[in-house]
Design brief:
single chain, 251 residues, mainly alpha, Arc Repressor Mutant, subunit A, Tetracycline Repressor, domain 2, 2 domains, 67% helix, globular, TetR family transcriptional regulator, HTH-type_TetR-like_transc_reg
């Protein structure tokens, strides 16, 4: 039996590649790393999520520190320790202690504005919308006591750091415009008297609640009556709502 010479054996013809394919190409629809085409590297996504979480932990720790001690007394190393972050990371994300303080103020106001937007005041009749806003402005500082202490501290600084934030001004202007539209609708349908300045109305709504929560300890001592009890708060809440709704009511 004659054995064929290996050199003369015919090799199988190579498979034809798809048009435009090159040697080493990944399967169609995938990138070179085997991930779906167009997909971003998973490592980058994880790093971004971790950075966001670190930044949020720093802000939460800084908020508590500034609320307790104010800008002058707060210590960045304690913020880092509480956040479980390297002190250098605070300067990397925020630049300075003062910039971190501004970021905390922005966060506090942003959280409050987001909560206000969820009230969907525009979907309510004018008087009901303003009543809901008054109730919210009373309930919010009760649930977020750090707001009062942070605002007290910033007022003692003359509002110097709030002026550094353009975001805060934009948020405030947007809120006043919403209130202006509600008042205009009420004046048109006859449920609200005309001529009410939306800015002054908002300051009144804020002030009567802010004063109560910022001065409860001294007022309780001065009048010998614990104004911080749930019963006293309920009385004050009803009073505040009545004061504002009577003020805006059409004659």
């Amino acid at each position: 039996m004659t054995v064929p010479d290996p050199a003369t054996r015919r090799k199988p013809a190579p498979r034809a590649k798809p048009s435009g394919a090159q040697s080493g190409d990944a399967p169609a629809g995938t990138g070179k790393d085997g991930r779906p085409a167009g997909a971003k590297p998973a490592v980058r996504e994880v790093v971004t999520r971790d950075a966001d979480k670190t930044r949020m932990r720093i802000l939460e720790a800084a908020q508590a520190e500034f609320a307790r001690k104010g800008l002058a007394g707060a210590r960045v190393d304690l913020v880092a320790e509480e956040a479980g972050a390297n002190k250098r990371m605070i300067y990397y994300y925020f630049g300075s202690k003062e910039d971190l303080y501004v970021a905390v103020l922005e966060r506090v106001y942003t959280d409050m504005r987001v909560a206000e937007a969820e009230l969907e005041l525009e979907d309510l009749p004018p008087v009901a919308a303003i009543t809901r806003l008054v109730e919210f402005k009373f309930d919010y500082p009760a649930a977020h006591p750090h707001l009062i202490t942070l605002l007290n501290g910033e007022n003692m600084l003359g509002g110097e750091y709030l002026r550094r934030s353009t975001r805060l001004r934009e948020m405030q202007i947007s809120l006043i415009e919403r209130l202006k539209a509600i008042l205009a609708q009420g004046a048109q349908d006859g449920s609200v008297r005309s001529g009410i300045d939306p800015l002054h109305l908002y300051m009144t709504i804020s002030a009567i609640s802010y004063f109560y929560f910022s001065n409860t300890p001294t007022l309780s001592t001065a009048f010998g009556r614990d104004l911080a009890t749930p019963e006293e708060r309920a009385i004050r809440r009803r009073h505040v709502v009545e004061v504002v709704t009577r003020f805006i009511a059409a004659a």
